Amino acid sequence: MDRGGTMRRPGPEDFCLRFSALVDSSGLSDRQLADQSGVGHATISDWKKGLNLPQSEDRLLRVVRACVRAAERRRAGLTEAQRSEREWTVLLSSAKSVRDNRISPDRTSPPSAPYARHTIRDLSPRLLGIHRAVLPAGDIEPTDLPELTKYLTRVHDHRLRAVISSVKDGGSAAFALLTGESTTGKTRAMYEAVAALAGDWPLIRPEDAEDLLRLLTKSTIQPRTVLWLNETQRFLYGPSGQRVARLLISLLDRASEVLVIGSMWEHPYLSEFLARGRFPDGHASVRDLLEGPATARIPVPPNFEPEQLGRLASDDPRLEAAAQASGEDGRLTQRLTGANELLDAYLHGGLFSPVEHALITAALDARRLGHHRPLPAVLLEAAADGYLTDRQRPGDPDWAVTALNNITSGVRTDGSRTDIRRTLTALTALRQRSGDLGAYYEPEDFLVQFALTGRWQVEPPRTLLEVLVRHADPQSARTVGFYLQGIDYYRDAARAFQRAVMTLGDAYSGSGLVEIIHQVDPASTADVSRWVVEQVSGGEGIGTLLETLKDTGADDARSTLLAHAAVIAADVDTWSSVSVLRALADEDHEAAEAFALRAPAAMTFDHPDTLWPFLTALTETRCASAAAALAARPDLVTFCEQVTLDDPEPLGFLLDGLYEAHAHEAVAALIVRDPGAHCRLTDASGVALLIQSLWYCAGPDVAFEWSGRFDPSAEVPEELAHIGALRTLHNLLARNPALEVDLEVGEGVGFLLEALHGIGADRAISQLLDRDLPYRVPFVAREPLGCYGFAHLLRAIEPLAAPPYWVLSSAPEGFNSFRDLDLLPETPFRTTFIRMVDRLAHAPTDDDWQVILLLDVLEAGDARDAIEDLCRCTAAEIPLTEPLIDSLLDKLRRLGQDAAADVLEQRLTEANLVRTPLGGFRHLSNIGDANIARLTFGLSADGRPADHWGWADICGHRSDTTPWPQP
Predict the structure, then answer these.
(1) How do residues 618-677 score in pLDDT, each as one tens digit?
(2) Region class of 332: left (phi > 0), else alpha (psi between -120 and 50), else beta
(3) For residues 450 and 182, is the Cβ–Cβ distance under 8 A?
(4) Are residues 177 and 136 located together in one domain of the fold?
(5) Does residue 758 sit in the same domain as residue 792?
(6) How confident is the model at residue 136 (pLDDT cuts 50, 70, 90)?
């Protein structure tokens, strides 16, 4: 019962959470529970994950009895409701009733997938995520104006409607994803396009990743259906994200006349999902979805052009006021929704009371820490209390409910406003049905994107951390765990990881848990490792867990996991398959060969990234039979005949893998399509890789004969015209990629320079150098790799500026390429190199990450004087709040710069900062001299070093991690 006195009937989500809590209390794995109850472990897992409800009371009660017996043996504290069989039968009946009633929800409540069969015309635009336009100053009432303002179509609208038209005309299923900043009109564009072209199609709107999983695994999506995934990142994060992505790929591959439509911010979400080269690669399947042939990524610009604003003549005062306020920047949509005003009010005060501001900040910080689901009032109340001072805390027991109503309704009981011009609110209340007082709350997405900019390094109050540890939904537990580990709350992190392992079988969380217990309680490493391996259900993260078990010496658990992974090859993702294969090859080549023969049977060739890592691993592990079997598959050639040619990087990796596996027919099928003539040219790293791969595929004789004098301006010699790889390489270079590549990522530019130099493409090199690389390649680009990119580019240019033959034969003794620049011979590259070194000498030294990378560059160039100067300045001046200060200190020691390291350590000591076991520094004032040794166990709730604890303290109190509470 909530505070308003209204009884809320428990639904499927309540059953899932309460059942999961009971299983957690039992301490049994799904397989152990299956053995004791006679109910299949997969069925129990589905009940825990909310994928299904028990079909009969008898099966449920058998599992409940087994859980209660096990919990009593462990002396775990169970409530009367958890022990009562009648309570469980009533709960199951209620959950089934609520589920069945969702087939026809009222039109004012958010529809629950997969049962909703509304069309977009049946639904309120606001329920679908469209911001209402704010009212201009004056006496205008909301009822005097239509709900939506006039809509102006732009370039992205035409692209979106072309995709929908193709699907509607009987075409294959497609995923239209609109990308851009918050509040740029992405959702409105989706609404207008679907309403115009597919307005009579049923629209399914899943609530979250678990809801979408149920839809994709338990239901059939019929033709002529719209799957609405606004804020798509919510469905792709967390342990379920990879599985959701694979199921969506399967849907898009097999279905026709199905439209999947969604939206996503380009930064940080899209850029994070598409990032490559990370290990572990937690987003491989998501990237396959977002880059797949059925996905159309359509960017939405943040501003309107002057000509477009001129076409917006309207008698709607909301549009007129927003157009005038947008001025020269053209950011009409942000003004129309009031987003900028809301952001200013939150950051600079004047609109919200301290209590209201604390509730909003708690919701924002929860999202920052990885919790993507809406929060119920009871949790926001508990979390927000830590943001208030003693003087600010109210005495009213209903303070949080009152403040949340004030924020979401836009008006307080005294008539004062909390919204922007009676329209935009900082929090939105979500209810399953009208009249439901048990609402869940989520922050306005413009605040999430921009208000958190200055909070990424701010440690939230303990109240929020405790809420997330105890109550975070399992999908968020892994992210919360890694955050807590990073700020030294090891015990809380272990609890969060344990929750994710127990409820989802998440291998990444298992790896984090083993690492922490090995740190604080090394004698229990074998026990926790064995427990984790029993819980892990397979799939993503197995490779990471195998590495952790190896590093911590948990050999028995690693062998068990390895044997298990080798059996369930079909359930292991590509990157984990590679890790399993390499681990097997280290111990038993025959077992590795058997695994390598089995694993590809479950592979579907839908993107190069699902194939080339395994091909490369087959070559590295010398699994010749498996490589031959894979190369002989007919669908491999078919895949190469159909794979998209737009992205050069995966194409390059794929060509390398196919060539090494002797899949010559597949190589020929890909090359004959002339990827060099069709790939995009902006990705310097990708273009470089494709150049090197095509050169390699042309054959060693050609590479040796023509190395150093490849001229794309001339025709391919007649005697080599039959070599397709050489021909498509010629076509690629003829498109002048050096003039097209994006210089923002200097690492890619360095790779391209090396690739061009390797084949002797002097004309392309000159084109690249003429683009003023020393100052157009940034030190800090869109991500930290920008600084590393400058370093890599400098290393690539150095051999051109000071060729090795000159350094070896003509350089004076003791030549230092960074110090003795005047000794360099006159070459076309000398000026570029000197200008880059000059910029390096004037680089800022107040960022630890940047300094570490600059030291890498100087070390590679043996610039001893420059290293000493940089270390001396950095040690004396760098802010001690930098997050990688411990890594910088280690770097100084490794370089032999002990004097600078001593200075930095002295500064840290004087600032009362001491090093923690897993990295980072903490204030000694919060620790005390006598407690430094206790840092091994992390921090306790009060921020001081924790007392001794270990695995027994965690595994013996599993019931302290409680399910998601209901208001």
Answers:
(1) 888 888 888 888 888 888 888 898 888 888 988 999 999 899 888 889 999 999 999 999
(2) alpha
(3) yes
(4) yes
(5) yes
(6) low
Looking at the fold, whether 794 and 679 belong to one and the same domain comes out as yes
817 and 807, same domain (yes or no): no
Are the C-beta atoms of residues 905 and 876 closer than 8 Å to each other?
no
Last residue of a domain, one of 441, 470, 499: 470
Please, which pLDDT band fits residue 860 given cuts at 50, 70 and 90?
low
* Partners of 2 in the β-ladder: none
Number of domains in the chain: 6
Segment 488-516 shows an average pLDDT of 90
- Which strands sit side by side in the sheet containing 203-204, from one edge to the other? 203-204, 225-229, 258-265, 174-180, 295-299
Q: Are residues 304 and 444 in the same domain?
A: no
Contacts 24+ apart (CB under 8 A), 709-716: 709/760, 710/759, 710/760, 710/761, 711/761, 711/763, 712/761, 712/763, 712/764, 713/763
- Concatenating the DSSP letter of every residue in 437-463 gives ---EEEE-HHHHHHTTTTTTTPPPPHH
Alpha helices in 74-183 (DSSP H): 80-83, 85-101, 155-168
Q: Are residues 663 and 756 in the same domain?
A: no
Query: Quick one: which H or E segment has residue 657?
Result: helix 648-660
CA distances from 595 to 453, 564, 570 (A): 46, 11, 10
CA-nearest of 792, 790, 794, 764 to 777 is 790
Residues 669 and 694 in one domain: no
Weakest mean pLDDT among 508-512, 699-703, 891-895: 699-703
The C-alpha atoms of residue 162 and residue 104 are separated, in whole angstroms, by 32
The answer to the question of residue 479 being in a domain is no
Asked if residue 516 belongs to a domain, the reply is no
Q: From start to end of 201-247, where are the E strands?
A: 203-204, 225-229
Question: 202: which 2 tokens?
Answer: 């049923």
Residue 634's pLDDT is 84
Cis amide prior to 613 (ω within 30 degrees): no
Residue corresponding to tokens 């190199």: 833
Name the range with the highest mean pLDDT among 78-87, 253-262, 824-833.
253-262
User: In whole angstroms, what is the distance from residue 568 CA to residue 562 CA?
Assistant: 10
Average pLDDT value for residue range 743-752: 76
Residue 583 within a domain: yes
What count of other Cβ atoms lies within 10 Å of the Cβ of residue 667? 24
Instruction: Return the DSSP state at 267.
Output: I
Domain interval for residue 726: 675-811
Mean pLDDT of the chain: 78
CB-hemisphere CA count at 13 Å for 58?
Answer: 1
Residue 799 CA to its chain's centroid (Å) = 37
Assign residue 234 the CATH number of its domain. Answer: 3.40.50.300
pTM metric for this prediction: 0.63
Given 424, 442, 470, the domain boundary residue is 470
pLDDT at 296: 93
* 422 half-sphere exposure, CB direction, 13 A CA radius: 11
pLDDT at 514: 96
Alpha helices by DSSP H, listed for 105-198, are 155-168, 186-197
Q: How far is CA 276 from CA 387, 523, 590, 615, in A?
A: 38, 37, 32, 18
Collect all residues with Cβ–Cβ distance below 8 Å to 373 and sequence separation of at least 6. Answer: 208, 234, 440, 473, 475, 476
Of 891, 794, 789, 784, the residue nearest 839 (C-alpha): 794
CA dihedral 515, 519, 520, 523 (to 10 degrees): 90
Report the 3 state secondary structure along 149-168: CCCCCCHHHHHHHHHHHHHH
Cα 776 to Cα 835: distance, rounded to the nearest angstrom: 12
Distance CA 883, CA 879 (A): 10
Spell out the residues 6+ positions from residue 66 whose beta carbon is closer than 8 angstroms to its own.
26, 28, 33, 36, 37
| Residue 816 shares a structural domain with residue 944 | yes
Q: Specify if 196 maps to a domain.
A: yes
Q: At a CB cut-off of 8 Å and minimum separation 6, what does 324 contact?
A: none
Q: How far apart are CA 785 and CA 770, in angstroms?
A: 23
